Batch of 4 targets.
Target 1
Amino acid sequence: MRALSRMFAVLVLVLVASACVTIHIYFPAAAAEEAARTIVRDVLEAPDAPTPDEPDAAPEPTSRGITPLIMPAVAWGLERLVAPASAQSPDLRVESPAINRLRTSMRSRSAELAPYLRSGAVGFGRDGFVEARDLSDVPLQERARVQRMVSEENADRRALYREIARANDRPDWEDQIRETFARVWVEEAPSGYWYQDRNGAWRQK
């Protein structure tokens, strides 16, 4: 009887704990940065960084010391406790027809924009978009085309940030996704590209 009482006591504690858990969904900053870096490198056609080796798998937990009779009940309780947290995966979904179309559109424009990003006519803004920085050295007949490319690029970027947030059912993440991309665009920009620092000053890599 004493053993049976202990078994029920453990079960009750597990169930109470599972009922009291509150799951908070945080913005997956590391996953967002990894996703942004992959997309930016694809758009700029930069080489991918080597993939780190997979960490060794953690050893499976042992049931030593726990009465076999209460294992099913404890496992059920732990499953109820852990399942909601596991459902909030730290990964960020960046695959959808809309996202793929935007990536293709931006990649097709990248080579055409590159000379203007190197000359300083156009630069990567600190807000995750591109800006027509100084068109004074751009021939007059090309300026309208450059401004059109800037407008189209920004439309694609704005839609990309929105679609990534939408693909993850978290439209409230759009600003954080844009901020992540803003930093990664500059970090992955090739040497010679112009960009805006945090204080709004223009610099060349």
Note: The beta strands are 122-124, 130-132, 194-196, 202-204.
Target 2
Amino acid sequence: MSDFTYEKAQLTMTLRGMGITDSHVLSALEQIPRDLFVPPALRDHAYENASLPIALEQTISQPYIVAIMTAALQLTGRERVLEIGTGSGYQAAILSLLSRRVYSIERLRPLLVEAENRFRKLKITNVTTKLGDGSVGWPEGAPFDRIILTCAPAAIPVALLNQLKTDGIMVAPEGRGRDQSLVLIRRTEDGFEKQEVLPVKFVPLIEG
């Protein structure tokens, strides 16, 4: 069985060429085996810079987008991070190497069970998961230093904004259909500052 060493090196070179320079993020992408997070039939495509379908009409994000979003969180290793949308578990696994603890919410039970199995296989112990509505966040764990969404709400839920610490950072896709942007939100003493990063296309956040 291939260990994908060559493919991983090629992906790293591709990401560097696209402007990803954060060595910690690149190292995390090299350490986490993306081939374990995609369906077996797509394993040979795991290290292409492309999003891939997983179960239940969901996707695993393009590595470039994972890298951009992870770098935008500006992690130091001390943060508590809330992730909305566990999906395959890939983004949470990346975050587990770069933060103190990840709290990840998934709405679809089969995806959550598979993700939890992957975490156990990889001996990842600092990811806490639960089944639930991501739009309401994780009130009992709040406030969080960082929040990341891997699915797109039409507008960022107020409940999630309220669970972000002052001086915290949220990274999320926002919008519907083709009109989506990746946004970076900082909470200040006076409120929230938001900037658009780039156009994106994510599956919608399932609310309610």
Note: The longest helix spans residues 5-17.
Target 3
Amino acid sequence: MIRPARLAALLLGVTTTLAAFAPASAGDGKSWKFDVVNKGNSPVIEFRTQEEGEWSENWIENRIEPGDNVELDFETDEGKCTVRTQIRFVDGTYFDADVDYCKANLLEIYTDTLLWKAAQ
């Protein structure tokens, strides 16, 4: 017969072991998610990040119209926090800026600048 205290210890050990091998879920805070708001006057058609001197593929499928808010996600929390980010508008103008994605939870796009705000 297993004593209740021993059974509780065994169950705790099994639960801890299962938790260690369980896949991370999207809601567990293990990725850099952030909102992007277009506060400019022109639609945004490209959002790219730079790694090792190379620009990524375009993160957005559709335009981000003035006033629109979209959520983007790195789907990881590994790597350098500060990432060069490029914004391109429908008229061909663009700019890039550094963003600390370890802290940023909101990016505001203006005509010629990108502001990021940390979670509060």
Note: Helices lie at 4-21.
Target 4
Amino acid sequence: MKTNNFSGPPPEHIAFIMDGNGRWAKKRGLPRTAGHKEGAKVLRRVIRDLDDIGVKYATFYAFSTENWKRSDDEVSALMKLLEDNLDDLVNYEKENIRLRFIGGRERLSEVLQKKMADAEKKSLDHTGMTVTLAINYGGRDDIVRAAKKASELVSEGFLKPDDLDEAAFEKLLQTEDIPPVDLMVRTGGELRISNFLIWQISYAELYFTDTLWCDFSKSDLMKAVDSFSSRNRRFGDAK
């Protein structure tokens, strides 16, 4: 049974920038990898909390195209964490949750690519909340990939330039079957979107919190949703 203890309906689609894992670990004298492991546990709980309150779509920034700039040790540890924990992380059989992944897979290991494909296939017919994990994802990269697809379609005669409007272009993005983001939440105190879902958050409400991702509780989630519910979304209308 879905629970709703806040004013107004929840956002249909919430996107999360899960920031602060390294700082959480540092505060405790632990290696950054310990923070990422804890962050994975929090991700599982937040997904269940979102499902519980009736959110239909949730997208999580797990690894950006810029994260490759981190130290080789940290990148290797993050990739190993994804490989080792993906099976457990995406096991939502009882919850009827559908799993998707966005981002370029060509730089990921064959093991991780296979696990991602298997998780998508296994949950393809699930009719509950859709959870998308962005791995090796960048908003600019997403738009460039869509532009290349459009160029190919035009050159092959499947698309006329005059027919390429916003709606048609949106279908070429990696989020083609997901509605635009209603609320974007960033933890960790930073006030930027960091190349995340640039097109998809055009009219999203933004919510920033100093709470580190590893400390992000259901109470923190409800505060974000309450903030969203209290806002007047005009979409350019003067009303």
Note: The first strand starts at residue 13 and ends at 17.
